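Reply to dn_fold:

You asked what the input looked like. This is it:
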Amino acid sequence: MEMVDRVSILQVEQTKCVQCAACAAACPVNGITMGDYGPAENANIESCIRCGHCVAICPTAALDNRRAPMENQVNIKREFCWDAEQASQFLRSRRSARNYRTEPVSKEKLLQLLDVARFAPTAGNRQGISFMVISEPEKLHQLTEVTVKWLEEENAVGRGTISKNASGHIRAFYKGEDPIFHQAPHLILATCSRESGDIGRSSAGFVLAYAELFAPAIGLGTCWAGIF
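and this is what came back:
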């Protein structure tokens, strides 16, 4: 049988490498060893999770990774980086919106929102999160109705503590209000495979948190639909 040489995952431009070993220290699978001529692959490199840390941390852009190519990376503009006070204000100014305009958000803006959200961290860089955007008013109303019915059932068997304001939500619904989605024109769901279990659910929460934090920058308000 003819032997086929394995294609290297790492590519190093020797004239740029200063042998600082930052890439080896950053690799989460310990797949990089420092050799006489700079970084070299070891057996662990086959477990590379495509995180791109080795490429991002190189101070001279000497290293590339076929699984996380440099051409796909984004240069960080130092002038856009916040100081501690600016970062603190950004995080502390986060608010939940419960009063929405009736007109829908454009598809382009929704895609812009989710394109940023997908860069949220996931365990082992597994990713695997998909988005579902529900925009039809009748479907949103049906989901609100199903949720309220569930709250009624929980109350009936003495489990109304699932929401401290369950009775208030139920009354509001029968008065014609939307206590679940607050008449928002869109509902965004982050989904994962059943096999991913708790890790997938945690990752879904991370990407939605990224979406929530980015939304105000493009003029959007959001709120977690926790009861749903």
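The CA atoms of residues 9 and 92 lie 42 Å apart.
Hope that clears it up.
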